[in-house]
């Protein structure tokens, strides 16, 4: 099994999802030879909590990974550990897997050492961080005992900021700006730089696939490609909008997955481990909150999830301020048609993560202040001093989430059903955030 994770990568930013300005033949080949998931989501719009769910098969609240700088508790069992206990050689390589905490400050590292909180070198057979993911994967395969199955999570930095793939960038004047973004010169340049990162990533993914082919492993290896969370673009990373949690997800497995398959079932990041385990003939643990979608890989029709839940917490190590950049406590629940976002800290204004100081964002703020931004953008949370406490979107008819339907009489029952589902989920997993449904009379 090979799980390839890109960093800060939103749907639909791949060629196989219909983006005409992205040339991604290697990742597209995975979809062509296997299956493309159109409704895959992460459990959080940030790397650490999202990867915690991907690694454990459990939601963010359940594994207490809402604080960005937290290491995964040593008593929480991961998927690779279960596979290892069932005869697999396991590993992590490339960009940091984010689950052993940050590199500092020294007070934090002292606490990690005292309480033995750096655990992944003991959980898997091979752990190496670094930017040379392909070389590390090759080294890992060299070490796999002959005849033994393997699991590897190979992590890439692309397309995480800063954008440095200049040689891979398309002409910014010729790309099509997505409908959800204002069309400005500087935003075009920024988007082209993001596309460059994805196209460089695709080249690296191709080298991983060639490594499997060279060793004769491509025919019996399940390969999954997924974004770890949404892009550092407008209303993306750090938000519970589609650009923050809706990610690309493709997989291939010769002889098991029918080539050219497409599915729109709802998939959450917490569903990966149960699926990998079922594919290996291993039962998931009772603690896992994810749901296996292995039947879909085999071509069976299943209804899948009714709801997906996602959460936002701290980001990085900065202290909270008046914006959502460093800290927020939003929650969301959605089905295939409607999404409800709950913003308990509604008075925090929106700030994009990792790019609040970038020229395109400063330029947009200035243009908005001078009345030069289209009304559909100027009237949204992009430039508002605060956000709605609740947001309700019709994902079928308003995929860019511009029209907040919350409070409209004709959507009262939908509001209630989504709030009820979120309330139940927050209670079940002991969320510390106040519940969205108040007692009668409050």
Would you kindly provide a written description of the structure presented here, covering whatever features stand out?
With 442 residues, this protein is α/β, with parallel strands linked by helices. The protein has two domains: 2-301, 3-Layer(aba) Sandwich (Alkaline Phosphatase, subunit A), CATH 3.40.720; 310-428, Arylsulfatase, C-terminal domain (2-Layer Sandwich), CATH 3.30.1120. The chain is 29% helix and 14% strand. It contains 13 helices and 13 strands. Strands 1, 2, 3, 4, 5, 6, 7, 8 and 9 form a nine-stranded mixed sheet that branches. A four-stranded antiparallel sheet has the order 10-11-12-13, covered by helices on one side.
What is the percent of helical residues? 25-40%
CATH superfamily of the largest domain: Alkaline Phosphatase, subunit A
The proportion of residues in beta strands is 5-15%
Which oligomeric state applies?
single chain
- Report the major sheet: 9 strands, mixed
Tally of DSSP β-strands: 13
Write down the overall geometry. Answer: globular
Main traits of this protein?
29% helix, 13 helices, Arylsulfatase, C-terminal domain, 9-stranded mixed beta sheet, globular, 442 residues, 13 strands, alpha/beta, 2 domains, Alkaline Phosphatase, subunit A
Tell me briefly what this model is:
With 442 residues, this protein is α/β, with parallel strands linked by helices. 29% of the residues lie in helices and 14% in strands. The chain has 2 domains: 2-301, Alkaline Phosphatase, subunit A, CATH 3.40.720.10; 310-428, 2-Layer Sandwich (Arylsulfatase, C-terminal domain).
